Amino acid sequence: MDSPVNGKGVISHQYVSTNWWGDHTDPHVYLASQGVSQAQFSHDVKYGIDGSEADNPTTNPMPIPSKPVDPTTAGFGYSVMDSGNDHGHVDQWGRIGNTLKARGCHVANYKYQYVFIIDRTTGKELARQKAPGVARPDVNGAYNATGNVGYDVDFNAKQFSGKSVIVMTRTTNDAKGNISGGHQDFYEARWHIMISSNKQPSTMQ
Fold this sequence. Notes:
Elements: H1 13-19, H2 28-33, H3 38-47, E1 81-83, E2 86-96, E3 99-107, E4 112-119, E5 125-130, H4 137-143, E6 150-156, E7 164-172, E8 183-194, E9 203-204
Antiparallel strand pairs: 1-2, 2-3, 3-6, 4-5, 4-7, 7-8, 8-9
């Protein structure tokens, strides 16, 4: 959806924010909460809710790339993680140059939000970062939540060289990101990244 040709085609809100202007947010978290996958949403945008490819033939179909155009969003179609009234989703996760980016949302009733990098092999914490809240009106609307439940943090990818890593998000009442006073964690174990020793995009496993 993020590869318009000659100004034509369907593009995402995130593409607009990244390449043009504004603060746009893709609605996939809300759609996932309603049982609509990213693939279904893309189809509906292109052909209509009741349409089909047969009803709308394409004369020059775009070839499907063997790999995602942006590997850092390759897993954003995963379902929302739920635990009672708490919800989480990783929208973007992966290496961009020397930066390891994690972007998404975590809805839970605690004071602070942290993002952790976890060694997938050992399960040990490799790094953590306090996440300034990011406004996510789409998420608040989907879950009747309040506050800035989004996060968008960057880590130095070099420190994880040669490791397979996953992202864990934590909401907690502990200002240091520990578990004192209550906490809630989401491990996105479905989306793990092997950090290579160079600046090339790391491999999604």
